[in-house]
Write a structure and sequence with these properties.
511 residues, mainly alpha, 0% strand, globular
Length: 511
């Protein structure tokens, strides 16, 4: 344990958290542009190669909320170090993979590190002064979002100069250093939610999410009415229903359903689901659009590197928007920022549908969508963090990330089915199919905008006791927002879940 007088500064803690989060975000997107290269290098089929992406997505969906809850219970620093080491091992295994089976297994191991996101947000809330939480959360969201964009931008140059295995060697080195730095410089968070992990609920949630994401991601390939797709759909509904029942009956739930019913939480998660659809679809299909040969009647015949350059404006504006978002939160609240983000997302999709003949039009749309993503990720996280008790930050932000993932799977599957519905004799999609697909994404953005408009405003938690007091931090909410249970709300209030009292793992200290 780090003595009080020697506790690291919030800045040092943030740098360590950012290194781990950036590495995982990049690993999620680095692979998409080079799947054809991996397919060729490992002598496998296209359908098998796509499992390199699918396996990672499934693993992250399962482990993100579970390990977020583990961090809330046993300590966020301890869990963070374990997660970063797991990511390093997965990256090493992927770099050395002799065949596609080992690579897919390595990507499953890497996916467990999706918990780095909720753990990082939880540590920020626990360790940073209250007035700096919003800014730090916004900047961390910018780092995560930019990492996803950087993966697409850097994939081409890395593969062209070093080979595809360096897509794993480089993050492995960074993550290993981040794990060591986390052990040395990240303080153990004092806020805990004691109790055992509800493993039966974890199994039900995992099975339900895997079934749901498989049927969404592979249903188009198998046929939506095929036996595998139908069986998985039934399994998803059954397992997730049983999970909800189990959580409602549990005295020690994995994910408190009453917390999930807080208006600011469930409405923000609904926005995450809808916004995630457009986010993943644009990330997956915009590079494919610009790489389409000019002979198809559209596209620019760009290579992997050139496609990444056209996506670079997105990375720049995404980073800037995420950083600015937290800094202006006291003037422009997260709800207003979220409404703006969804409106910008709608504008981007409409622009791509009707103005995609020139590279500058793609770059401009990319920049606007970067603004939308930076504002959305930061504001959604701040809304969640501001609306739940401190001891539930990890699992709540993990579930919000999962809603984005599920929405992304739906969005990518929907866009894929639309784009491939009408193919040219050459095998390339019709331009009209892309236009229709982008208009469908515009429709999901309209729905996200509607959901954002009903998200209640929340105010940042403030201290009700001196910094060295032992009491928990109380959240101050307006009448239309749910009052987290660590406030003075009566026990029978419907505003939020009843939770175990906050416990501290060490004597409190001045911040």
């Amino acid at each position: 344990m780090i003595p009080t007088s020697r506790r690291p500064s919030p800045g040092a803690t943030f740098l360590v958290l950012a290194a781990g989060a950036l590495s995982f975000a990049m690993l999620q997107s680095l692979i998409a542009p080079v799947l054809s290269t991996i397919q060729s290098e490992l002598d496998t089929s296209q359908s098998t190669a796509t499992w390199v992406m699918t396996a990672n997505l499934l693993s992250a969906a399962v482990f993100t909320p579970i390990l977020g809850r583990v961090g809330d219970a046993v300590g966020k620093k301890r869990t963070l170090v374990a997660v970063l080491l797991t990511l390093a091992v997965g990256s090493l295994l992927a770099a050395l993979a002799p065949d596609i089976g080992v690579l897919i297994a390595a990507r499953v191991v890497q996916g467990a590190a999706g918990a780095v996101f909720p753990l990082s947000y939880g540590i920020i809330r626990d360790e940073f002064p209250a007035q700096r939480v919003a800014s730090a959360v916004g900047t961390m969201s910018a780092v995560i979002a930019a990492g996803g964009g950087l993966g697409i931008v850097l994939a081409g140059p890395i593969v062209d100069t070093l080979g595809y295995t360096w897509l794993f060697w480089t993050p492995m080195a960074v993550v290993t250093l981040a794990a060591v730095a986390a052990q040395l410089f990240v303080p153990e968070s004092p806020v805990r939610q004691p109790g055992r992990i509800n493993w039966p609920a974890a199994v039900l949630l995992s099975g339900g999410l895997v079934s749901l994401l498989l049927v969404v991601g592979k249903g188009g390939t198998w046929g939506w009415s095929s036996a595998p797709a139908t069986g998985l759909a039934i399994a998803a509904v059954t397992l997730l229903s049983l999970w909800i029942v189990a959580e409602l009956r549990s005295a020690n739930p994995l994910v408190d359903m009453r917390m999930m019913r807080i208006p600011a939480v469930w409405r923000t998660n609904l926005v995450a689901l809808l916004f995630g659809a457009g986010w993943f679809a644009i990330f997956a299909f915009l590079p494919q659009f610009v790489q389409t040969p000019i002979g198809a009647g559209y596209g620019f015949g760009a290579g992997i590197t050139e496609a990444g350059v056209l996506m670079l404006p997105m990375v720049v504006t995404m980073s800037a928007a995420g950083v600015v978002s937290g800094r202006i939160e006291h003037r422009v609240g997260p709800r207003a920022q979220l409404v703006t983000a969804t409106a910008l997302s709608m504008l981007t999709a409409v622009s791509l549908a009707f103005a995609h003949a020139e590279p500058w039009q793609i770059a401009l749309a990319s920049a606007v969508f970067g603004l939308a993503a930076g504002l959305a990720f930061s504001s959604m996280t701040n809304l969640i963090v501001s609306s739940v008790p401190a001891q539930q930050t990890g699992v709540a932000s993990g579930m919000n990330a999962n809603f984005r993932t599920i929405g992304g799977a739906f969005g990518a599957a929907l866009m894929g089915s639309v784009v491939t519905s009408g193919l040219q004799p050459t095998g390339w999609p019709q331009e009209s199919a892309y236009t229709t697909g982008f208009l469908v994404l515009a429709a999901t953005s309209v729905a996200a905008l509607g959901a954002a408009l009903i998200v209640p405003s929340v105010r940042r938690a403030t201290r009700t006791s001196p910094p060295d007091a032992e009491g928990p931090l109380d959240a101050v909410s307006p009448p239309d927002a749910a009052v987290p249970p660590d406030t003075a709300a009566p026990p029978d209030a419907e505003a939020g879940p009843r939770t175990a009292p906050i416990t501290r793992s060490e004597p409190s200290r001045a911040r």
